[in-house]
Here is the input.
Amino acid sequence: MKITKEDIDALNSVVKIDITANDYQEKVDTQLNDYRRKANIPGFRKGHVPMSLVKKQYGKSVMIDEVNKLLQESLNKFLVEEKLDVLGNPLPKMQDDFSWDEEKFSFEFELGLAPDFEVNLKPKKAINSYKIVADDKMINNQIENIREQYGKMITQAAVEENSNVTGTFVNEEKEIEKKSTFKVEKIKGKVNLKKFVGAKVGDVLSLKSKNLFTDDHMLMNVLGLSHDDAHGFDAPLTFTIEEITQTELADLNQELFDKLFGEGLVKTDEELKDRLKEDAEKQFGSQADQQLLNAVTESLIENTSFELPAEFLKKWLAVSGEKPMTPEEAKEEYERSEKGLRYQLIEGKLMTDNKLQVSYEDLKEYTKGFVKAQMAQFGDNKIEDKELDEIVNRVLSNQEEVKRLSDQLKNEKLLTFFKENIKLKTKEVTYEDFVKEVYK
Here is the structure.
């Protein structure tokens, strides 16, 4: 057997494998002898079928199987030994004059090679690293929501501007009949508000869905519509009032503090605000980190230049899926996936060059921390090492969990690396401003 590689250019090569009968005949003979021992052919005792008959019946198919096995093993071994970083999988080149009736065979495979490049970690423009702070407005709103959540519901005789109203919306033509509860303060406009204020249980109000609420998304919830249907929805509605209540806010006292955080952990209004601020900013930190990871990803793709074996990858995409693609479909798929492929190559190089790979021991320790954190949420902070190891082993026996946790750990390693090596500009913002800037 002879294997040679011809470089077409820096990103494309062809591997040629020449196979002769000496390379496969011994295995073919072994397989045919095994067939002969086991074959049940009418007119012959088991194990005494003439070899000529076995070869005639099975010889060609056995030879084809053995050649294909040899071909795949040899190609894989060659790629490893030559340390070829291939993209996709080798593609066999079609041969018009190929015949399985020969004893010598020659096969050719196209390879798409990963490019050689350097990652640009120093973009001209610094990347924003957001520090999201919980401002007084947010904390006060959160306290108000807590007081409402733990408050008492008091029945009212008539609707007031601070009431909660429960009733059923109906539009027979649109097949809407939905019972909902909402705050009257969410009603938009003086005309609509006037219809509600003073109304009593049993009253039927005639309304228009358009501009009914201060936030159009409320129509999704109160009418049971999809997001797409809610936008621009315009139809007459009737609303039959079934219940009118008002929320009496809970007092900020030790009883409420203990319900929220545990006995004696928060004792004053100021401690409450500090705790809410700390918890909120801890959550915001995760969002800021994800945004930073996304921004760095975009920057690396934009600022790290290299060519890809595009034509090879389009051909590979056309045949690699469950359903073959036309050249036009493969081109579209390549254009959709090119950015992701570029980042995979950049990420792989960064992790290799900077020894950021996730080892099994890394994953095991990370999973221990994950399990401890999960159990702490349920108040179990005293788990013995043996029990912890058993839980970790169960988690890591699930391949989906292994992938999920590995990806999380990989992203944490990359994030730490980026914070230490990428040009960043810290920007302090409120959560409201963060949403406006990032998700505008």
